[in-house]
Write a structure and sequence with these properties.
Largest sheet of chain B: 3 strands, antiparallel
CATH topology of chain B: Arc Repressor Mutant, subunit A
Number of strands of chain A: 0
Number of helices of chain B: 4
Structural class of chain A: mainly alpha
CATH class of chain B: Mainly Alpha
Number of helices of chain A: 7
Oligomer: heterodimer
Number of domains of chain B: 1
Helix content of chain A: over 70%
Strand order of the largest sheet of chain B: 1-3-2
CATH architecture of chain B: Orthogonal Bundle
Radius of gyration of chain A: 20 Å
Chain lengths: 207, 100
């Protein structure tokens, strides 16, 4: 016959299994910090080195005339994106392995699919806008769709991610109104808030 | 100290079976390999526990093909959800009685 400690352990086990099989809890806080640092470096380079001023491109009469170095801005954005994603995958896999779990399991798949739908929608919309020459919309759209994807993914990982998503959506909407501050708002959203989120997650769950 | 065994289902005495039911109550559908990853058990062990739950009609089995490979997925049945829920309530009750 089982003892009362066994019943208690049963309940603990049930709870942990429900959580582990519905939420991906190996998402790394450090990955957030690194993504934030990449974003800060990237927006600095875009603004001061490449002189990227989206507000000057918001005039409807200026459509379809891309600045000469726009290709470099896109390249910079792609490099930042790839760096951030590969860092997140690398650090989260390390976390998962340390816990004796597989990084690519039913839970992480579900989180990624839920993230991917708004993210890819936003990415395609941005490409459409670029093709029309509406450059000033890139920044607000990237913040808004990234925020939506975080909000969606938060159901399948740490719930706190929801608030990071809402902040990005809010900053994106503000950036849409105040296009002259868009680069700054982007640096705050993708840079500063990623770092704050990452440090908090690291302190709370990974130490 | 009052410990009543009433309400605890025999099928859930094994922790692997409890684990399977826990995972299936929060997931609509899980395939064999996902369950194996979550539970850290061998193929044979998992298969025998799944068989036992299937016999009780606590889980439903869906066979399909991924490419050419057969893929078996499992879902908790209505009966299984109810039994598991009753079992949880009974466990809770037992622990309450112990701590009081």
């Amino acid at each position: 016959m089982k003892k009362e400690q066994d019943y208690f352990r049963d309940l603990v086990e049930i709870r942990s299994m429900m959580e582990r099989s519905s939420k991906f809890l190996s998402l790394s806080g450090w990955a957030g910090v690194m993504a934030g640092i990449y974003a800060l470096i990237g927006s600095y380079l875009a603004y001061y080195v490449l002189d990227f001023r989206p507000e000057e491109l918001s005039d409807p009469s200026a459509t379809a005339i891309l600045p000469d170095n726009f290709g470099q801005v896109v390249l910079l954005a792609l490099v930042m994106l790839i760096l951030a994603i590969s860092t997140a995958i690398f650090l989260s896999s390390k976390n998962a392995i340390a816990k004796g779990e597989k990084a690519w399991n039913a839970t992480s798949k579900r989180m990624i699919y839920n993230m991917a739908v708004p993210l890819i929608t936003g990415g395609l919309l941005i490409l459409i806008f670029i093709s029309k020459g509406w450059i000033s919309w890139i920044i607000p759209l990237s913040l808004i769709f990234y925020g939506l994807s975080l909000y969606n993914a938060s159901k399948f990982t740490f719930g706190l991610l929801k608030y990071l998503g809402l902040i990005q959506i809010g900053l994106g909407l503000v950036a849409a109104c105040l296009i002259e501050y868009a680069v700054l708002l982007w640096a705050i959203g993708f840079g500063v808030f990623h770092i704050i989120y990452g440090v908090y997650m690291h302190i709370r769950y990974e130490r | 100290m009052k410990i009543s065994l009433h309400g605890l289902h025999k099928a859930f005495e094994s922790r692997v079976r409890l684990g399977i039911m826990s995972a299936l109550t929060v997931n609509e559908l899980l395939d064999f390999n996902s369950l194996k990853d979550y539970l850290n058990v061998t193929d044979g062990n998992l298969a025998s526990h799944l068989k036992a739950l299937e016999k009780e009609k606590f889980i439903e089995v869906q066979k399909s093909f991924v490419g050419r490979k057969p893929n078996t997925s499992y879902a908790a049945s209505k009966l299984g959800r109810k039994a598991f829920n009753d079992h949880l309530n009974a466990l809770e009750q037992l622990i309450k009685n112990v701590t009081e």
